[in-house]
Amino acid sequence: MLKVIDIHTYYGESHVLRGISLDLDDRSIVGILGRNGMGKTTLIRSIIGFAPPKRGQILVNGVDVTNISAYKRAQMNLGLVPQGRRIFPSLSVLENLHVGVRKQAAGPWNEERIFALFPRLKERLEHKGNQLSGGEQQMLAIARALMTNPSILLMDEPTEGLAPIIVQDIGNIIRQLKEEGLSILLIEQNISFALKVTDYVHVLSKGAIVHSSPPGELWEREDIKTQYLGL
Prior knowledge:
Layout: E1 2-11, E2 14-24, E3 29-33, H1 40-48, E4 55-60, E5 63-64, H2 70-74, E6 78-81, H3 93-99, H4 111-117, H5 119-123, H6 134-146, E7 152-156, H7 164-179, E8 183-187, H8 191-197, E9 200-205, E10 208-213, H9 215-219, H10 222-229
Parallel strand pairs: 3-8, 3-9, 6-7, 7-8
Antiparallel strand pairs: 1-2, 1-4, 4-5, 9-10
Helix pairs in contact: 3-6
């Protein structure tokens, strides 16, 4: 599905990602963990095309997209749920959803399925984005990405700033999306949450992967949790 091979990404002269390699297989959830400022969001930006790497390769379903623009990558079944939700505050729920619609994107996700997954959004259909709670905004951000009918979903800090009960709801949604056939790359600061929903995790520090394992194995590594995750 998604293969990242030895990518190096820079912001100006600053060398941010230093040889990142990872695989995201079909119907799997891979977590990227680490403290703030370690390169997690830059990794998402490199994959989606906002900050293309200077070296290395990014393959989507076997196609090299390293030098393809971001909008073309979005047409190759990549969906993005950005950090901070980034919904349009002056648009209604329905209008925000329609922003994500691509006519050429054949797939199962439409309004009917979205509202079956997010019944609260159907209740708030005509409300503006800035009239929604934080949890509702996050649901809308996920729903908008699904309207592009992706096979790979990139999620950047989906539980940020949410109450524990809403975090639990987001976890259930992520698991359901996997069951529906999506592959998910999950950037997450909430370590306990990430370890509950992922199949495999990578720990990032200073732009490099310092640990990779199934989530259960990471939970047993007190040295990694203390040094790189601040637990």
